[in-house]
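Incident review: delayed structure delivery

Summary: a single-chain prediction request sat in the queue longer than the usual turnaround. Root cause was a stuck worker, restarted by the on-call engineer. No data loss occurred. The affected request and its eventual output are reproduced below so the record is complete for anyone auditing the incident later.

Affected input:
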Amino acid sequence: MNYRTAYTAKESEHLRILFAQGNTDEQIAAVMGRTLRSVADHRRKLRLLHMSAVDMAVKKSKHWSRDEVDFICNFWKEKNDKWMAKKLKTTEAVYKNKRRELGFQKHWRQKKGLRRSWTFSDEEFLRQHYTTHSAKNIAALMKGRHTPYAIICKANKLGLRKETRPGRHGFPPIDLRDPYYQPLTRTQP
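Output delivered after worker restart:
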């Protein structure tokens, strides 16, 4: 055994080769005549990390046929990853890796079908209805193209305001132009 001796450049390269071939730390230690802890520490020092479960699944995965790739290209946006993996008879992790490899990224907003840009007609519709309808009703009238929160944000950007509502506790708002309006004054007791 090479007890407490530093690794040479040649030994480091040999460790890299053995690790790349898929050998475990125990196998590498037996071949190199080193302790298990020594091999594991030096492997980490060389930044040779064990493969994750996803990488292992990809390594063991089958060859993708042209039909399977076409199926992914046609349906990756419309269907969720779990459904696609089931149809392709593979695991979800393997399918996701292949989808990403093909350059198809799913953003969290794409999953829900949200985040659409505002068209001129959408803005006009909002201008016409914002003062009289709630944001939830407008979202329903727009057939779900925008969420109620997006409608409120866009209305604020456009400078739209709701019609005046009754004041607190159901009293009508005070109109300062009313000739009968007199501000309350405090009387001394």
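Verification: The chain has three domains: 9-50, 54-106, 120-158.
Action items: add queue-age alerting; document worker restart procedure.
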